[in-house]
Amino acid sequence: MTWLKKSEPTEAWEIEDDEKIGDIELARQIREICNSVADSAEAVSVLYYGPSTETKKREIDRYERAKKRAEKKIEQISDELLRDTAIYQVLNFCMKAGDVETAERLFHQIQTARIAALVKSEHPMFRDS
Which of 12, 56, 99, 116 sits a CA distance of 20 to 30 A from 37? Predict the structure, then answer.
């Protein structure tokens, strides 16, 4: 019977909010996304090269959903410093997961010199960029 079938639990950050929110609230939500899914990001980096399991699929899916949601919220931030700070948080989240391709793309979106320097000091791979 399909009505007894368990569905995937919905994360708090996946609930759509229709109201218009400001830059500070968007930045806070991005920080919450990154913090709440940090364990999945770490699991993705460990599980990525291993055999395919349900746990691996679930953790990768959770990471991808969180990353997509955070990037969508970044696009809504108009203040340059807040946006770059949010990018920095998502970039660290991606590096934790070993998602270098996304991290590189995010790094090139940073416009604030101070935040770019912070990223370069924490992640040597960006020093030549």
Answer: 116
How far is 21 from 129, CA to CA, in rounded Å? 33
Residue 107 makes CB contacts below 8 A (sequence gap 6+) with: 91, 116, 119, 126, 129
**What are 88-102's pLDDT values in tens digits?**
999 999 999 889 999
pTM recorded for the entire structure: 0.83
CATH class of 22-126: mainly alpha
CA distance 43 to 56: 8
pLDDT over 60 at 2, yes or no: no
Q: Cα–Cα distance between 124 and 85 in angstroms, integer?
A: 19
